[in-house]
Every structure is written in C-alpha cells, then in structure tokens.
Amino acid sequence: MQKSMFTAYLGVAVLATATLATVGGTPATADSATPLGLPAYGDHVVDDDHGHVFVSGGPTGNGVVVTNRYGGVVKTITGQYGATGLALDAPRDRLYVANAAGDAVSVIDLHSLTEIDRIPTGAQTCPTHLTRTDEVLWFGYGCEGTWNGGIGRIEFPEPEPPAEPQVTLNRQGSTAFQRAPLVTAHDDCAGPLVAGQPYLSLSTVYVYDVDDAHELDTRTSGTAPGSNLYDIALDQRGEILFTGAGSRNNAPAYSTEDLSGRGSYHSGYHPLAVAPTADDLHIAVGVRATGDDVYVYELGGVIPTERLDLTGDVLAPRGLAWSADGDTLYAVSEPPAGGSPTLHVVDVF
What we know:
By secondary structure, the chain is an all-beta fold. It has strands spanning 4-8, 32-35, 44-47, 52-56, 63-68, 73-78, 83-89, 94-99, 104-109, 115-120, 127-133, 136-141, 150-155, 166-168, 182-185, 193-196, 205-210, 216-222, 229-234, 240-245, 250-255, 261-266, 271-276, 282-287, 294-298, 306-310, 314-322, 328-334, 342-347.
C-alpha cells in the first residue's frame, strides 16, 4: 500500500516523510491510501451527507468504486460504460454518472447505491464531464477522434416520475469545441457555467449565464489560462475561476465577469488539478511531478501552508476534492505511465 504525506512549508526545504506532519515535523494523524482496482481514473466526488466517496474508472472502465469517508471500499457499481464525469444532486439524493462509452447518463440512488435510471444522450455523443445549476444537469460531450464536441442539457420535469428527463444538445451556440469540454458551474439557477476546451494550444474558456429558459448566454471568453487545460473550478460564489493548464508553472485565478486576473498560486510545472474548499478559505493545487504533488494555499496567500508527496505515483488529472468542512483532502493518484488509481485520504486541518 502506498503512503502519502503532508509536511508544513516553513519557507525552506523540508524533507518529506511517509506521515502527516505538523509545522514542527512531529508525526500527527496518518493518512490512508486505497488501491481502487479500476483500469484508470475518470472523476471523483465526495458525498459528506452519506459518508461516501465515488471514484469513476474512466472511458475504458465500466464501474464506479464507492468508499467510506476513510477510504475503505464499500461497493463497486458496475455496468457504468466508460464512467467518467460525476455530479452530486443532494436535494434528490442522486449521483449522476457520465457514460462516455455508453452514450448515456446514469442515475445512482445515494441511499441504496444502485442505478435507478439511465438517460440516453444520443448515439455517438460520448458524455464525459458533468455539472449542475440548480435543477438542471449539464454535460460536456464529444467522442475522441471526431474533433467535435458540445454542451448538453438535461432537465428534470416535475412531478417525476412519470415525466421523462428532457435532453437537449448543442447548448453552446456557435462555439466549436474539438472534444468534450470541461464544465463547472455555480449551483445557482443562473450559474455562471464555465466550459473549457481541454488539452489544446491555446485552450479557450467560456463563461455563460443561464437564463430563465435554461439557455446559455455567453458572458465572456478567452485564452488566458494557457495551453493544455486540465481542470477548472469556481469559488463558492461563482465569482472566481481557478484553472490548471499544463503550459503553466502556477494555477491562475480570474474574475468570471471578464477573465481579469485575480492572482495565481505557484505550483511548479504542469498543474493539472485545482480544488477550492467550500468555505473559500483554502485551495489545493496539484501538479504532475515526481516530488511534491499537491500544494495547499490560503486563498490569496503567498506561500503554501501544506504540501503532499504521492510517493511512487503521480496525481491524476482533476484528482483533487475536499470534504465539505474543508478539513480532509481526497487525492487520486495513478502510476506515472497510467493505470489503476489509488485514493489518498489526508486530514489536512
């Protein structure tokens, strides 16, 4: 079993150890690392209400592993074809799973941990990334090699059932995505919703408002994040956009009004994951590196307060998520050449 560790930054180099350490270097609460038995990694989300973490197996896998809050495996939900993006719907007690190899979004009951519905998105759509605004589910879709992608919408009429979810494609208007776009949103009914074109040079991000008819209206767009975009995230007010792009040595932040700068967080080269806490006090920034993989900053801070080294592994793209209280970080790693992921549970604060 692999170990991960946090050590405090003192403004000087600190030797890493395989334990969680305080500022003075005294070992404190140990973390856990759980091999998940999946072929690859797609996404992960934390369901604090039910004490579970969900990890999907990526476009070549057909399952979602469920662990408890400490990383112990509870169940594997099978039959999820190309399980990639995940989105929680706490008001409905549901988890949505993008089936990139199944042209559908499946619905998982958060109590029974079983599939209760499957929503087709259309042949050769390959839904890949998910997000929500209030009662609407949005998905970035596009099959590899087709150089064509878009943003889809799933609306859930009331009462439900018997009303069927309504799927609409191409909600991005005239924007041309060359593969499934990353999507993230503020959960307010009006958004904003942000979409980003991953892996390209340059990568463009689009900020949309959501109108009363659940249509997307472009607020602003630009290539400020750089090339090879891996991850996007919003603060809890939907006012600040954080990005991780491989061409950078930092994770810059932008206003969602006009993409004007709102600082940056140094990470070293190839940042590929950004995750602010729900209380907007801290942000975790992850890189693909053989040394320190994750840095935790106070929002607006100058130097990282904590760092994480996934010994023997590298951080997976979009591989960071926090508990709701902002105390525990869930990081997913993978072998340097790719392969089966490991879930690391680290008590940071």
